[in-house]
TrEMBL record:
Pfam families: DUF3383. This is Phage protein. Keywords: Signal. It comes from the Bacteria. The keyword Signal applies.
């Protein structure tokens, strides 16, 4: 349902904002990546528990190829299929008014079960 998606994206954003507010600094290095991944993982675990993320959904070849393209990994789709998600954080630099700043960019790919939208049947009395 759409409510799951809304909850999930909002929870991720709120958790990351809480991380930034709770700490005086999130370092632009591997330690910062781990802090962000840990924060994301806590919400991912909730999403696995409440069914927002689905484990074991068979992915089509097109989905597998798309995941490989986005992640740069030919095997990332196996993680999405087998555990329901793939996540990564990259620290990137950018320049604002001649000053180098840093940002963390996360990519989260996850699967969701397909929904039944129609039920058809026959009731036959003989």
């Amino acid at each position: 349902m759409y409510a799951d998606e809304i909850w999930f994206k909002d929870a991720l954003g709120a958790a990351l904002m809480n991380l930034l507010l709770a700490l005086s600094q999130v370092p632009a290095n591997a330690a910062g990546q781990v802090q962000i991944l840990s924060t994301l993982q806590s919400i991912i675990n909730q999403a696995l528990f409440n069914g927002t993320i689905s484990v074991g959904k068979t992915l089509s070849v097109d989905q597998q190829l798309y995941i490989a393209q986005v992640t740069g990994s030919a095997t990332a789709w196996k993680q999405v299929q087998n555990i329901g998600y793939w996540v990564n954080v990259v620290i990137e630099s950018y320049v604002v008014n001649g000053v180098t700043e840093y940002k963390a960019v996360y990519t989260l790919i996850y699967s969701k079960d397909d929904d039944i939208r129609l039920i058809q049947g026959s009731d036959i009395l003989i």
